[in-house]
Each structure stands twice: as C-alpha cells, then as structure tokens.
Amino acid sequence: MPLPTSEYVSLTTFRRTGVPVATPVWAAPDGADLLVWTRADSGKVKRLRHTPRVTVAPCDVRGRPQGPEVAAVGSFVPEEEWPHALDALRRRYGLRFQVGLVVSRAWSRITRPGTQRHAVLRISPV
Q: CA 14 from chain center: how many Å?
C-alpha cells in the first residue's frame, strides 16, 4: 500500500515498551518515500533510534486520522542528502516551510552555535 500524500501525516513511532506515539507532521513525497524535517531532540527521533518500525496515516492538523494506517520503516537522511530533502519540503509547503527553516536556523545559531538541532527522516513503505 502506498504512503499517504495528505498535507499532514500522522507519524506513529513506538516506545521500547511497544506503546505507540502518534505525531502529526509535514511530509514531502520523494518517490515511494516520505521526507520529514524535525527537531533532533524530539521524542520521535529518540524512538526511531531504537526501532525503525513506524506507521503513517493521513490526518488533519491536530493529528486526527483521515484514512488507514500504512506500515513503514523510518531512517535518518545523511546530512549530505539534506539539500535534496529540504528542496522537496520547500516544493510541498512553500513559504510556510521556508520561513520556519530560516527562523529555526537563525535561532540555532544564536542559542547553540555550531550544533545541529534538526534531523531529516525518510519514511519508506514495507
């Protein structure tokens, strides 16, 4: 089953105990995969570090499901591939994404210079 292409996607990651945690995210299509830009210290990133198993479903801005879940695996996009991933997110979300990216990078430079505060995730269907 293909991954959802709605404006918002509910990304469900799993705690070590197996408890699911769903989060609405922006996700840009990249072939059969989805690309997600998020904070590197977020819970979903921490959960993905110990298990790549995820599910995705179309949802509204508040995370309410709008369709069926699809099983997938999550991985981290290497930094050298970020320009392609960020271009995909810019194409998908336009000025909204670009403003968030610029503000976030500026804030990172002010508060924690020299550190990377974000991660790009690749969600692939199983």
A: 15
User: What gap in Å lies between CA 93 and CA 106, rounded to an integer?
Assistant: 20
Closest by CA position to 55, among listed 93, 115, 114, 1? 1
DSSP 59-78: E-TT--B-S--EEEEEEEPP
Calculate mean pLDDT across residues 84-113. Answer: 82
Contact (CB, 8 A) for 33 and 122 = yes
- Compute the distance between CA of residue 105 and CA of residue 123 in angstroms, rounded to an integer: 23
Q: Counting every residue, how long is the chain?
A: 126
Structure tokens belonging to residue 6: 């709605």
The domain segmentation of the chain, as residue ranges, is 8-125
- Mean pLDDT, rounded, for 46-69: 95
Answer whether 0.70 is exceeded by the pTM: yes
Helix or strand or coil: residue 16? Answer: coil
Under CATH, which number does the domain 8-125 receive?
A: 2.30.110.10
